[in-house]
Amino acid sequence: VGISHPSDPCDYVTIMDESEGEITLPRFIREPQDCEVREGETAEFTAHMICTSDYILKFYNMYGKELKTDDKYRVVKEPGFIKVQILDVHEPDCGEYTCRAASSAGAVTASAQLTIRGDPKIDLPEELKERIKIQRGESVCLKVPVYGDPAPM
pTM above the 0.90 mark? Predict the structure, then answer.
């Protein structure tokens, strides 16, 4: 008697239902991959899955909202395949996107990150946005934050 090591998870689950016959758990054969784009570009996530029973395949943003085709997103679905394009990517679009495949046997999810690769930007403090008078020969020390991804050196 004691603690045993957990067994390896199985790749494929089949459930027999007298009314529906064989029901299988969906399985990803290609999960969405992390995506890095420049600000203003289009990001794209794709996923491929198999399931021998009826299933539902959807993508969700980092807030749990289902993605549907509109001015911001383009969603293409085919049997066993889904593609999501995020148009005109900006900082609020960055985060984790999740693909969910569900059948009567259960659901599986796979997630990927969207990040922006940006040029360095200068975040000028308010006090430096106004004209500053400095006398000739006077020393000046300015601290100005600069950020970007990857981080500027």
Answer: no
